[in-house]
Specification:
alpha/beta, eight-stranded mixed beta sheet
Length: about 210
């Protein structure tokens, strides 16, 4: 079967994953960006190189902090569940949560804080309603393990198991507008039945009314 236009295969290199490339494409050149849960700084480097952005990162892992510093990146050690008290209101053009929201203890607080300090937010999360995860649970009666969810239930960093629909509901509850939504399955974009067929949801968001 021939892939449709929206699902044609893209072959990003390891350092240019499609989800990170899409995040980068949503950022206006020259913007200021705060990357929450910045990991090893891969996205930060991409934003600096491709969008000439001024980027800062926050991460709770000291190992990741040292790794970022070794790459010449500006990072801060911090716990997102404690908020962003050091950041004034609207101090960044964009705040990014890339595969991070489901790993924090207080996702509502983190969302509120990201849209307090940022004019817009970009959120990506795994979709636990993806059909392979559903099938795994149905057939084996165990918490799913897939390419995107490789951890056992007892050592997964994902402490809030959310779906695309759940996240959309949370945005509405919190008074958050979705400016743009993109749904991914590996290196393909998905438009039909994303809650069933997408592995990842990507959302450009802002406070409603702004």
């Amino acid at each position: 079967m021939t892939a449709t236009a929206e699902e044609r295969v893209v072959e990003p290199t390891l350092s240019e994953r499609l989800d990170l490339k899409l995040i980068s494409s949503l950022v206006e050149p020259g913007s200021s960006v705060l990357d929450l849960g910045c990991g090893d700084g891969e996205l930060m480097r991409l934003l600096i190189r491709e969008r000439q952005a001024t980027v800062r990162g926050v991460d709770i892992s000291e190992e990741n902090i040292y790794h970022c510093i070794g790459r010449g990146l500006t990072v801060h050690h911090g716990d997102l569940d404690e908020g962003l008290e050091d950041c004034p209101d609207s101090s960044f053009d964009y705040v990014v949560l890339s595969q991070t929201l489901q790993a924090v203890h207080k996702p509502r607080l983190v969302l509120q804080e990201m849209l307090r300090v940022g004019r817009q937010g970009i959120v990506t999360t795994p979709n636990f309603a993806f059909w392979q995860a559903r099938l795994y649970l149905t057939l084996w009666g165990r918490m799913p393990m897939t390419k995107d969810l490789p951890h056992q239930w007892y050592d997964t960093p994902n402490i809030h198991l959310t779906t695309i629909r759940d996240l959309q509901d949370l945005f509405r509850t919190e008074g958050i507008s979705v400016v743009k939504a993109v749904y991914l399955s590996g290196d393909r974009q998905v438009r039909l039945l994303p809650n069933l067929r997408a592995r990842t949801g990507l959302f450009l968001i802002r406070k409603s009314g702004e």
